């Protein structure tokens, strides 16, 4: 009698673990399907491999625990938006930390010079900082269009806007980025002259 | 539904037309920029954003980044998921080139095959025989024209003489007159 009870229990456990396994297998499918695009987008946003791995892990962890562990209706939209948000908060943290450090120890090396203006690394860092400061709706479009290289119709579907609106947002985002980047450049150059 | 599709198509055409007219590469925009210092400044700043975006895009990452990211992400998933064969496969996956890039090397061969198929189809439809017919019709018209303007005997002599030869020779003969 006892043996029978144990065997029933085992069967029950096996069934439960089997169903849980099946119910969450879509996470692995999503990872297989969108992983490569996601890593590319995160790499372009963060520019650091360890940060990319962290943001990627965080994204899938949030996916596994979203809405009571249920599969979201639009997985691609969920993944890309979550990854974008995670990456931006990481970027902001990085920028804040850099500011704090540069305040603590201002050295001539940390200040940009006019010669740096066309330096690729300086440009990239400058752009990343400015992207992190953009309003959410513009930032989402610029990251999905220029960093994830998705077509406008897909961006529209992910963000719940029309592709025309996405185009307009991208145009506005580029204008804002251009203005902010040149402002930052001027400021850095003034700092350099002051030094 | 059909009206919606039409509307969408028209809007797409409009965007393309507007992009063609108002893109930064349009001649009138370039002419304006050449003479307007304010626009030159704007153009330079936007150029810098595009340059930075291209620099970011061209920066390569290690080939095993996807593998490492997958491994790290799978580590925090449930034990049952971690043990699945799919998870094991994801831990060793390498980035694959896009379909277009993968098939890009076959473009020339595909184009050649397509050209051959097109020629075969044209032969099957009878386009080449129609060309011959057209040539004969043209010769007749030229004959009639000369018959109307030159002496009949001369025309008979000319076209009878050339009848056995190719059409190009005919044409040259007529032109020589």
Features:
heterodimer; A: 195 residues; mainly alpha; 8 helices; 80% helix; disordered N terminus; B: 177 residues; 11 helices; elongated; disordered C terminus
Overview of the molecule:
The complex is a heterodimer of chains A (195) and B (177). Helix content of chain A is 80%, strand content 0%. Chain A is built from 8 helices and no strands. In chain A, 30% of the residues are buried. Chain A is mainly alpha-helical and 195 residues long. Chain B is mainly α. Chain B is 80% helix and 0% strand. Chain B has 11 helices and no strands. Chain B has helices at residues 2-22, 27-35, 37-58, 65-75, 79-82, 85-90, 99-104, 107-125, 127-149, 152-162, 167-176. The radius of gyration of chain B is 34 Å and the shape is elongated. Chain B starts with a helix and ends with a helix. Chain A binds chain B through residues 17, 20-21, 24-25, 27-29, 31-32, 35-36, 39, 43-44, 47, 49, 52-54, 56-57, 59-61, 64, 118, 120, 123-124, 126-128, 146-147, 149, 164, 167, 174-175, 177-179, 181-182, and chain B through 11, 15, 42, 45-46, 48-53, 55-57, 59, 61-62, 65-66, 68-70, 72-78, 80-81, 84, 86-87, 89-90, 93, 95-96.
Count of β-strands of chain A: 0
Which regions of chain B contain 5 or more consecutive residues with pLDDT less than 50? 166-177
Strand content of chain A: under 5%
Q: State the major sheet of chain B.
A: none
The secondary-structure class of chain B comes to mainly alpha
| Fraction of residues in H or I helices of chain B | over 70%
Classify the secondary structure makeup of chain A into a structural class. Answer: mainly alpha
Number of helices of chain B: 11
